[in-house]
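ENTRY TYPE: paired fold submission
RECORD: A
CONTENT: sequence, then C-alpha cells
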Amino acid sequence: METIKRLPDAEFEIMRVVWENEPPITTAMIMVKIGNERKWKPPTLLTLMSRLVERGFLQTEKKGKERTYYPLISKEDYLELETGKFMEQYHENSFLSFVNTLYNTKKPTERELDELLKWAKEWRE
C-alpha cells in the first residue's frame, strides 16, 4: 500500500461524508451534506474531489452526467495513521504522556476511569 498522506481539513470533511454513507457517493450528495453549509461553489467541491482521487483516497466513475466516488482508504486505516503520527510526534509514543496531557486541566470522571481500566484489562488479555 502507498503511504497515506495527511488530509487538509476541507478534504478530511469530504472524506468523513464519504465514510458515513454507503458508496457510491456523488458530488450532489456532498454538496447537500456539507458544501452548502461551507458555502462552497460546485467548482470548489470538484477540485477537492479531484485532489482526493489524485491522492488515492477516492476512485471515481462517470455515470451519465454525474460522477460517482468510492473510498479507497477506510476511515479506520486513516485514523490509525493519524493517531500514530500524533502519538509519535507529540507524546513520543507514550500513552501515559497522552493521558496526562488530556486530563491535565480537568479531572476524569469515575465513569471515564472505570472505562479506561476496563479497556486496559481487556487489552492485556
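RECORD: B
CONTENT: sequence, then C-alpha cells
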Amino acid sequence: MTEPNNPHDANACAVFIDGFKVGYLPREAAASFVAQIGDQGIHGVSCFQLRAKLVGGYGTKLKIGVMVNLP
C-alpha cells in the first residue's frame, strides 16, 4: 500500500501479509514503483496485490525477509 502522507518518505510503500504490516519496500524501490504507477495515472493511496514469498528463518539466519515481485 502506498503511503503518500508518510512523514518519513512520501514514496513509502508498506507491505502487508494477511492484513499485517510486515515492513516497507526499500526507499529506492518504492520511489521507482510510485513513479511507474504515477506514469499509469495512479496517484494517492493505492493498494495492490502482488506475488511475494518469505525467505530466511532457518539455521543461523533467524530473521525472515519478504521478497516482493514488483511489476
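NOTES ON RECORD B: The mean pLDDT is 89. The first strand starts at residue 14 and ends at 17.
STATUS: closed
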